[in-house]
Every structure is written in structure tokens, then in C-alpha cells.
Amino acid sequence: NNPLAHELTTGPEIIEAVVSTPGTVDRPSSGKVDAIIAGAGTGGTVTGLSRAIKKKHNTSAIVVGVDPVSCSPLAS
How do residues 8-49 score in pLDDT, each as one tens digit? Predict the structure, then answer.
């Protein structure tokens, strides 16, 4: 259920924040989420965010999952 929760809540919240934030002359905005970086952990957050953004907002968005050190087998 974790991916679905992020697909239905966190993802749309991020999209709305980006869409509603105007660009400036110095920093123009595409009005889209072009890239997002999220901790991978169990994968629920990054999966849900990816679904929300790529399915309904910007199919060209780049999604990067980063494995936190505490989840790495090399962390011990």
C-alpha cells in the first residue's frame, strides 16, 4: 500500500507545488516536474512518486532512487 499512498498523495502534492510556483526571468520554469530524487529504502516512495509523475504529469521526467547508506549491505 505504500506505493499507492505516495501515488495518490505525495506525488500530486509535489506536482501541484511545481505547477503553482511561477518561474522568474532568471529562473524560468517548465511548469513540470522534470526530475525527482528520492530515497529508495523499501522502494515504496520512489515507486509511488514515479507512477504519479510519469503516468499523469510528465512521461519524460527523470526519476532517481538513491539507496540510503543504512540499507546498503556495505554499511556494516
Answer: 999 999 999 999 999 999 999 999 999 999 988 888 999 999
Fill in the DSSP letter of residue 22. -
Burial 44-56 (b: 16+ CB within 10 A, else e): bbbbbbbbbbbee
Residue 17 to residue 5: CA distance in whole angstroms: 18
Contacts of 62 (CB under 8 A, 6+ apart): 34, 35, 36
Burial 20-35 (b: 16+ CB within 10 A, else e): eeeeeeeeeeeeebee
